[in-house]
């Protein structure tokens, strides 16, 4: 195998418009394309994040996440930022609550967490 990067991460939103607003207007991700699939009553929004993508889906009545955050499966998303203090300040100005910034005891890097509209944990790492 010759993996080069993560192509995309898929997220299923319980409230598509609320999540679309969060990822585009709050986080500032660029829309690549948006499609409505009537046969599934589902939206698919492709968002650009660096060289990767986030696919934001809507489905009628999706099941809830089993538990936070230690359920088996994907634990959280992590976005790298150049200046964590600046990123946290910008999120806070937009009404997004963040945890206190901490320092990773193994890597020495700084990180914090916040949540999307469906309580998906998202990490910022500097």
From TrEMBL:
Keyword set, alphabetical order: Metal-binding
Domain VOC, first and last residues per copy: 5-126
Top-rank taxon: Bacteria
Any matching Pfam family: Glyoxalase
Annotated PANTHER family: FOSFOMYCIN RESISTANCE PROTEIN FOSX, LYASE, PUTATIVE-RELATED-RELATED
Name this polypeptide is given: VOC family protein
């Amino acid at each position: 195998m010759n993996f080069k990067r993560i192509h995309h991460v898929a997220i299923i939103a319980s409230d598509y418009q609320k999540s679309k607003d969060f990822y585009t207007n709050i986080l500032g991700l660029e829309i690549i394309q948006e499609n409505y699939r009537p046969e599934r009553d589902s939206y698919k929004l492709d968002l650009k994040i660096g060289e990767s993508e986030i696919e934001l889906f809507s489905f009628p009545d999706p099941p809830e996440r089993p538990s936070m955050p230690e359920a088996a499966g994907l634990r959280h998303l992590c976005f790298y930022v150049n200046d964590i203090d600046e990123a946290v300040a910008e999120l806070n100005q937009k009404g997004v609550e963040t945890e206190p910034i901490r320092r990773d005891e193994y890597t020495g890097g700084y990180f914090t967490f916040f949540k999307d509209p469906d309580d998906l944990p998202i990490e910022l790492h500097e």
